[in-house]
Write a structure and sequence with these properties.
The structure is a single chain. By secondary structure, the protein is an all-alpha fold. The chain has one domain. The protein is built from six helices and no strands. The chain is globular, with a radius of gyration of 14 Å. The mean pLDDT is 90.
Length: 135
């Protein structure tokens, strides 16, 4: 991952492996739905900005899944997406967000891993959403 020490990389990989389990709660889903504006705001600058369009799509996926409009996604994958977005929203991170210049690097690493793992499902949702203009 380049910017991280081996210990940081181990923490990030451990956190992502936990996220990949996809075990999320209604509270996690509510956190994403109720804080989408904040998640997108945080994602619009710094190292997360390179993933902004994907993060925006993942927020829409969480909303569509919650409303039961779109269920063509494996449960584990939507769980991974929701938990990744919760991680982005949370101020409690491996590297605290308040550290200038590096605080969002762990968020970007987690998001990048999630996008790589869910790329096909994200693209499938985009195709579906293109026919459902409210997403």
């Amino acid at each position: 991952m380049g910017f991280f020490t081996k210990a940081d990389e181990a923490k990030i990989n451990g956190m992502f492996n936990s996220i990949k389990q996809g075990r999320f709660s209604n509270n996690d889903t509510s956190t994403v739905i109720n804080n989408t504006v904040d998640i997108l705001s945080k994602s619009s600058h710094g190292p997360l900005s390179q993933f902004f369009d994907d993060i925006k799509t993942m927020c829409a996926m969480a909303k569509a899944w919650t409303k039961k409009d779109y269920r063509e996604i494996p449960f584990k994958t939507i769980g991974m997406i929701i938990l990744t977005l919760v991680y982005v929203f949370s101020p409690v991170d491996i590297i605290p967000d308040v550290i200038p210049g590096v605080g969002l690097l762990d968020d970007a690493a987690i998001v990048g891993l999630c996008i790589a793992a869910a790329r096909n499902d994200i693209n499938d949702f985009r195709i579906w959403a293109s026919h459902h203009k409210h997403y």
